[in-house]
Each structure stands twice: as structure tokens, then as C-alpha cells.
Amino acid sequence: MKKIGVFVCWCGSNIAATVDVKAVVEACKKEPNVVFAEDYQYICSEIGQNKMADAIRDYKLDGVVICSCSPRMHEATFRKTAEKAGLNPYMIEVANIREQCSWIHKDIEEGTEKAIVLARTAIAKVLLNAPLQAGESKVTKRALVIGGGIAGIQSALDIADAGFEVDIVEKKPSIGGKMSQLDKTFPTLDCSACILTPKMVDVSAHEKINIFAYSEVEAVSGFVGNFTAKIRQKARYVDTAKCTGCRACMEKCPSKKSLNEFNAGLDTRPAIYIPFAQAVPNKATIDPNACIKLKTGKCGICSKVCTAGAIDYEQKDQIIEREYGAIVVATGYNIINLDKFNELGYSDCKDVITSLEFERLTNAAGPTKGHLICPSDGREPKKIVFVQCVGSRGLRPCDKQYCSKICCMYTAKHAMLLREKHPETEVYVFYIDVRTPGKNYDEFYRRAVEQYGVHYIKGQVGKVIEKDGHLEVQASDLLADEQLHIDADLVVLAAAIEADDTARKIGTMLTASMDTNDFFTEAHAKLKPVESPTAGIFLSGMCQGPKDIPDTVAQAGAAAVKVIGLLSKDTLKCNACVASPNENMCNGCSLCATVCPYGAITYVDKEFRIPGGVQVRRVSQVNEAICQGCGACTVACMSGAMDLKGFTNKEIMAEVESICK
Amino acid sequence: MQVENKTFKPTIVAFCCNWCSYAGADLAGSARLSYPAEVKIIRIPCSCRLNPMFILKAFQRGADGVILCGCHPGDCHYTTGNYYARRRMTTLFSMLNYLGIEKERTRVEWVSAAEGAKFSAVMNDFVATITALGENKKLEDLRCKK
């Protein structure tokens, strides 16, 4: 008789609050084959693990059921403990009584009843489990970094410095991301380009780093240690090997009316362009939507002026397939579309701008060479109103519920810089709360208020309307309890931050979890902040949630360390739950081989003893190193010869029966 | 005649693929998005591991509804598994008609690892559908019940 032990975890009050753990233990004790059942506050703790190991040894257990959190959380932990205690790690089953029971049910009776059924189901399964041995798979010693902003750059540099190859895939023509658009950075006020561009140069000069700029990841397959990614290198219509970045083409291009994305659409750029002076790679790109030659076939001026002969109108997108051991997601962020914030006049009034536009307007390399003007008529603004939390911390459908985290600080920076450059300008900041956690952040904000005389007003702006060439800002001052009407020249909106629009596509491709705001979720909010729950996927920067540059760089480094840890291994343990054919039942029809997505199934002729002689039959064979254990073959098999270890027909049926009891 | 006061609580088996839907169910849990306790989840590696026979057996054992959740088409962790699942389930649906079982008692839903809210919504809806349909007696094998 198999001997089964059951552990029921309290998970503090996470489980114990809605599940009567003692009742679950008592119910389990009544199940056949259960020789031991106990509850404990935290089974994942060292004491809990020791208790488990002791029970396995003392009771000579053949199988263990742990009723706890999701197996996605601690199955690996429990398996390790079992192995140490001399029990095959696959003789462990986890009944998920936290995520799929205590956390979603409020009624104790209901929760306990369900927990008992789940425990019983796991017991039924573990009774049929067989000891399994995992094979090993090789680790491809190269990392893929998706996104070339400061997060991606930092992760790539750290991984490459450890000696591993890194590919950066960036959808825009140059790496650099949002940080390259910023003017100064808080709280030190050092120039953003001065600290970023050296890093960009390091990336392009690093022998271990490959940059795939103007490229997108199209598909990812495989698993930790063995990913294969398809990268679409979009046609630049410029041979990057020949282009010297001289910009002669940009000067002569007759189609100069495209909005300049780099300057947040505040000016225009030619159809052939290099996004900014320090672009990496410093190569031209033709915008096919604006190029006269590509649209009508007539023009070709750039190709005439290019002395390097780099222009190639026939260039096509290229698909590159590369293998990786680990993937870092660094897809970054965008500011929200303000079309739905009509009351603030963003779409109607030219002098209502976003903070990113403001950033470009004050940047020495920006469209006005750093000379701050009102976009409507070019006059110098005398009175400027900053509005915080536009779309952040709101409850309307167009709002984001979260705090965008960086707006308080960059607004203080904007206000301070303005007062420094133009002391005659009046600056108002409307805020809900000023949030300045971070080293030297609150000191910075206080300087803006106390030294630079920025008027901070607690209250929300209700409306911005255009009146005789001025903007009337209607707002409330909550502390003075009065309505304010301020005549402003310029209104700057601190628009909320949202995940980049490609994030969901990439998350789906990687089967990585995301939250409802399209930010990637971490494997554990506190203890695994840079890992995705999907093995081999790591998170860097804003793709995981709003954060400022120091936090982004710290997280990027942390993600890099995790990647280095993974890539420094030569092999990883494979999945032990692989398909296995029963040769006595197999009739060699090869249906299983046709459905196998990995080509893991082959055929051999084998001798079988039959009464009165030997028979040679064709039977299927599974390559356990290639099989990923999806189970497609098990259902395709007509004779029922194919089964999946760890998820056998019998095991699943036992679970079904147990639930329906 | 005795009037049954007890409200009908259906028995529902949910097969969830390990990579998307099971993670989606976990996410529903972490976000405390509740759904009825009648739903009991069985973890399978991929939706293609689900033999339609398991569903029939579940009905035979007294399940009132069986739902299969997998990755969205095109997003299968094993590339093509959910396409097989979709075909097999389509075949099963026509067979259920033949057997006289309301085909609403089985359902296929694609729930990604990010769709905790969808998982909870789907389960709430499915349980409501099954509760409205009432007990499944067509295929129940009474020999299996004590």
C-alpha cells in the first residue's frame, strides 16, 4: 500500500482566514492511504520544509500532497525538499487552495468544502504518480533584450560585460528611448543626453552587443534556455553598411512635412531622417509613408546626393531567426492620449501642451533651440500653469487608477528650471498630493517652493478655455477653499504614463503575465521583482510599472544579474513530464508523429516475442530531450498507446472522479 | 410533495492549460476576483492534452458542466496545441448533440495569463448557465455513485 502524507498550509491568514485548515487535515486523514496529515503556518519556510522532510523519512512516505498556494509559486521548492529527503520529486502534488480557493471565496464553509475536494483530488492523483527522472537541456548563451531605452541599454551592457552575447531589438531607428528626449534629470539636474549618450556609444562599440534597430520581435518559441525569436528588420531603404550618417540626404529631401516624433510632433522632419544628432546607429531611414519616390516612383533626390551610394529603394523587410537562452523585456512606456480630456483643452488649444512637449521646448537640441515659447504664436510665456495627475489616480474610464510616479518630480524640475532661466515668469503647479519619495527628492521639491518661489496650489484644474489669445485656467484651491481663475500663457499637463502599445503583443508572444494596465507582472511582487512568472523572461524598467530613471537602471541591472545567472549554467534540467508510448499497444500508425510540434517522435522496428516466435513491429519512440510534454500525441493516438508522464490518462481521470464524487 | 429548498449547486470541472489559463486563474485569485466555489480546476499542460473522452467521463461521473480553457489561438506555449484542442472540441460538440446532452454544458474559452478578470467573468457566466440548465442526468452513470 502506498503511504501518502498531507500538509495543509495556513499561509499566515491568507488561507487560514477563509479555509478551516484543521477541518481539511481531518478530512484528509480519512482518505485511504493517507498515513499522515498536518497543518502548519508556512510550509514554504525552513521549519515547514524540515517538517515535510522529517515526515517523508519518518513515515516512509511514497507521496506527498501539499495544500497551499499555486504550484506555479512553490511546486519547485517542495520538489527540492522531497528530493533531499529521498523522495522522487514527482511524487509531490500541490493542491492550490490559495489562489483558486481562499482568495476568491469569502465564506469559510464554502472555502473549506472546496479545499477538501481539491486536497482529495490531489491525493487521488499522487496515488497514481510514478517516479520520474528529468533529462537535461543545453542553454543558449545569448540574451535578447526587447527595447532599447535606458532600461534595455543598461541590461544589455551589464549582461555583455559579464561576457555573454546580447541582441537589442528596438522598434525605432535609434536606441535611446524616452530618456534621449528629456532635457535635464531630477534631482541633480544633469543633462539627460550627457549621461545617456555615452552609454549608447558603449552599446554600439561593445563587441558582445548586436543592435537590431528599426526592428520588431515577431514571434518567440521555445522555453527557458532555448528560445528562438523571429526578428523583423524593417526596410530602412538605406544600406546601413554604407550610410555614413552625413545627413546630406536630409537637407536635400523635398518632402519635409512629416511630424518629427522625436520632438513630440512640435516640428517636422524630412522623409529620410536620422531621428536625433546622437542617434545610435547613426544611419538614415526613409519613412515610406512620406517618401515621394516610394509613393509615386518619382524623385530619387536622396540617392543622387548620397555619395556613399547607400540608398536602396528596393530594400525589403528581413526576417532574422536567432536563438536565445534568456529574454529581457524592456518595452518602456508612453504618455496617454489626451483626446478624452477635452476640459483641459489639449486638442483645441495649441498652448496646452504635455510635459514631454515641454521637455522638448526647453531642450537646447529641441525645435526652438531651448527657447521657451508659446506654440500658438511664438511669444514668450509670462505665466505658466502646470497641472498634475492628468489621467493618473482617477476613477473615470479614461483615467488610470495608479500613480504615474514621476510627474511630481519632473514638474518640480520644470518649474525650478523655468524660474531659474526666466525669473520674471510666474509658475503655478496644481496638485492633488506631492509625492516625493526617493533620495534627495523631497529636498528638491522644497527648493522649488522655497528658493525658486513656485506657487504650489492643492487643488484640481476643472477647465482650461481659450480667451482672447490667453488661457483661462479654472481651478479650485482646496486649502483656501476658493475658486481660482488664472490667466495663463502656457498650460503644461503631466499626462499619465501607460505601458507601451506593443507591450501586450509582446507579452502574449512570450506567454508572460500582464496586469489589467498592460504592465508586465513580476513572479513575486516583493521577492522576484524582475522575473516574469514565465521562466527565462525578465523585466526591466517601465514595462513592469511606472518608475524613474534611477529605479529603472537599478531594475535593469537586477534583471541582467538574473540573466547572467541563467546563462552561466551549461545545462538546465528538462521537463520530466514527457510523452511515453506503450509499445505493446502501439500499432505504428504515426498519427502521433504528425501532430507533434517538435518532431520528437520517430519510429523504429522492434522485435516482440509472441507465442511461438518473434514478431517485428514498427513502434513509436519519443526523444525525451526534445519532447516538451504538451500531450497533443496522447489524444491523437487511436489505440491509446501514448500517454504523458505526470499527466497520465489515469491520473487525470482520477482527478475528474474525485471532483465529481 | 416535498419542495426542495436547497439551491442547486452544480459540479463543474475546469480544465486549464498550465501556461495561460491556469496562470489566469491564479491571477484572478491574486486580484481577489471571485467566482463560484463549484468550479474546480484540473491543471493540464496544454489544452491539447484534453482527451474529449475526459469530458464524457466527467459527465458520466456526475459533472454538470465541463469547461476547457487554453491559450488564445496563436499563443499556445506549444505553438499549435490549442488548434488541436479547438478541432477536437468542435467534433465533441456535434457528438454531444447526438448524445442528447445540451452542448452548453461544455465550453471552450481562451484565457491568457494576463486575463484574470476574464477568467473570473467566464467562470461566473458558465456557472450561471449550468445552474440555469439544472442537473445533468443524461449521461450520469449511477453505478459510479454509492
Strand order in the largest sheet of chain B: 2-1-3-4
**How many separate helices of chain A?**
18
- What is the average of the pLDDT values of chain B? 89
Shape of chain B: globular
Kindly provide the name of the CATH class of chain B.
Alpha Beta
Provide the CATH architecture of chain B: 3-Layer(aba) Sandwich
Tell me what the CATH architecture of the largest domain in chain A is.
3-Layer(bba) Sandwich
Uncertain segments of chain A of ≥5 residues (pLDDT<50)?
none
Number of strands of chain B: 4
- List the chains of the largest interface with their residue counts: A-B, 57 and 52 residues
> What is the CATH topology of the largest domain in chain A?
FAD/NAD(P)-binding domain
In angstroms, what is the radius of gyration of chain B? 15 Å
Strand count, sense and barrel status of the largest sheet of chain A are:
5 strands, parallel
Level-1 CATH class name of the largest domain in chain A: Alpha Beta
Could you give the order of strands across the largest sheet of chain A? Answer: 10-7-6-18-29
Describe the structure using short key phrases.
heterodimer, A: 661 residues, alpha/beta, Rossmann fold, FAD/NAD(P)-binding domain, 5 domains, 5-stranded parallel β-sheet, 18 helices, B: 146 residues, 4-stranded parallel β-sheet, 4 helices, 38% helix
Q: Describe it for me?
A:
Chain A has 661 residues and is of the alpha/beta class. Chain A is built from 18 helices and 34 strands. Chain A folds into 5 domains: 4-126, Rossmann fold; 142-234 and 317-332 and 500-571, FAD/NAD(P)-binding domain, CATH 3.50.50.60; 248-305, no CATH class; 335-498, FAD/NAD(P)-binding domain (3-Layer(bba) Sandwich), CATH 3.50.50; 579-645, 2-Layer Sandwich (Alpha-Beta Plaits). Chain B has a single domain, classed as Rossmann fold, CATH 3.40.50. Helix content of chain B is 38%, strand content 16%. Chain B contains 4 helices and 4 strands, in the order βαβαβαβα. The longest helix of chain B has 19 residues, at 81-99. In chain B, strands 2-1-3-4 form a 4-stranded parallel sheet, sandwiched between helices. Chain B has helices at 21-30, 52-60, 81-99, 116-133, and strands at residues 12-17, 39-44, 65-70, 106-110. With 146 residues, chain B is an alpha/beta fold. In chain B, α3 (81-99) links the parallel β3 and β4. The chains are: A alpha/beta (661), B alpha/beta (146). Chains A and B meet through α4, α5, α14, α17 and α18 of A and α1, β2, α2, α3 and α4 of B.
